[in-house]
UniProtKB/TrEMBL annotation:
InterPro entries: Thioredoxin-like_sf, TXNDC17-like, TXNDC17_dom. It holds the Pfam family TXD17-like_Trx. Keywords: Disulfide bond, Electron transport, Oxidoreductase, Redox-active center, Transport. Gene3D superfamilies: Glutaredoxin (3.40.30.10). GO terms for cellular component: cytosol. It comes from the Eukaryota. This is Thioredoxin-like protein Clot. The lineage of its organism: Eukaryota, Viridiplantae, Streptophyta, Embryophyta, Tracheophyta. Belongs to the thioredoxin family.
Amino acid sequence: TFSFSISRSQFSKMPVKYVEATLSTFNDVFDKFQADAPNHKANLILFLADKDPSTSLSWCPDCVRAEPVIYKKVEESGLDVALLKAYVGDRPTWRNPQHPWRLDPRFQLKGVPTLMRWENGAGASRLEDHEAHIESKIHSLLFSSA
């Protein structure tokens, strides 16, 4: 009889490059993210709520629901992806109508989580809070220009 084996590493997925930023570190991290963007097939920004120190969970239930689904879909995509996780702050910071990412014309955030595909120096497409956990929509966002 003939037998063979194939190691999992022969079918390994492309690594996902995760980068994190807060309001105070965002500009520097974002500059590097943009400079590195041409090296990746897909560049995503995930705007999400900070974790509550007392629970180690996000104060935002939609973020808690969406995060694992987003990470799973990104990692399963097989694409070379850079994912910038941008933390909007605690609840009072985010609720402020003058929050910088609400006002920034590049982002114009309305809710968290927001998953944005970043292409050519601009947000090409996005999934907002009520849809950011839907696998088929995440897939479409990932492969919209792949």
